[in-house]
Design brief:
Belongs to the universal ribosomal protein uL22 family. One of its GO terms (molecular function) is structural constituent of ribosome. This is Large ribosomal subunit protein uL22. Keywords: Ribonucleoprotein, Ribosomal protein, RNA-binding, rRNA-binding. Helix 2 runs antiparallel to helix 3. The protein is α+β, with helices and mostly antiparallel strands. The mean pLDDT is 95. Strands 1-5-2 form a three-stranded antiparallel beta sheet. A two-stranded antiparallel sheet has the order 3-4. The chain is elongated, with a radius of gyration of 17 Å. It has one domain: Ribosomal Protein L22, Chain A. It is 39% helix and 37% strand.
């Protein structure tokens, strides 16, 4: 039971922090925790965990109370390059990083 989200406009470092918190947690606990966490990455992770849980319920008929988050994988996505013009015809680069995130669910033991 998996869910993937690609090219999210948030840096992988910020998502890694949130992914580390919810990994190996119950799905209900993780959804409740992410719902009230005041970070942009929490909203992204909330939608992803909810999608994975819905996949498990619809495709495998596994109730939500029997699921836990077994793995959260955060990888670098493509970098969007922008720039800031400065004096003397120069240009300071600004890198807007993106992320790929995958969430895997498993049955509780």
């Amino acid at each position: 039971m998996k869910a993937h989200y690609k090219s999210i406009r948030i840096s992988p470092h910020k998502l890694l922090v949130i992914g580390g918190i919810v990994q190996n947690q119950d799905v209900k606990y993780a959804l409740n925790f992410l719902k009230y966490l005041p970070k942009k990455g929490a909203k992204v992770m909330y939608n992803l965990v909810k999608s994975a849980a819905s996949n498990a319920e619809n495709n495998f008929k596994i109730p939500l109370k029997n699921l836990k988050i077994s793995r959260v994988i955060v990888n670098k996505g493509p970098v969007i390059k922008r720039g800031l013009p400065v004096s003397r015809g120069r240009w300071h680069p600004i890198l807007k990083r993106t992320s790929y995130v995958s969430v895997e669910l498993a049955m509780k033991e």
